[in-house]
Design a protein that fits this description.
The structure is a single chain. The protein has 78 residues and is mainly α. The chain has a single domain, classed as Winged helix-like DNA-binding domain superfamily/Winged helix DNA-binding domain (Arc Repressor Mutant, subunit A, Orthogonal Bundle), CATH 1.10.10. It is built from 4 helices and 2 strands, in the order αββααα. It has a two-stranded antiparallel sheet with strand order 1-2. It is globular and about 40 Å long.
């Protein structure tokens, strides 16, 4: 699991310091948006040939780590 997280890099010179895949200009945010738009892993890999399956898994793992909180608060719908 920790090996996957090593694929996520943060560099202030790349994508304004957003977490990215392996120093490439693919923010984790973009991968998550593609997945939430119903693209499959295979479709993403076809469209972005320099990405690997583990990059997508790393994005999901990174996002899951961000949701590990001790408490939650209900947000009002906008």
């Amino acid at each position: 699991m920790s090996n996957l997280l090593k694929r996520i890099t943060i560099d202030s010179e790349i994508s304004h310091g957003k977490p990215c895949i392996r120093g490439l200009r693919y923010p984790v945010e973009m991968i998550l948006q593609l997945l939430s738009s119903d693209m499959t892993t295979e479709e993403i890999l076809e469209d972005y040939s320099d990405l690997e399956k583990d990059d997508i898994l790393a994005s999901l793992l990174y996002a899951s780590k961000l949701t590990e909180v001790k408490s939650t608060h209900k947000l009002d719908a906008a």
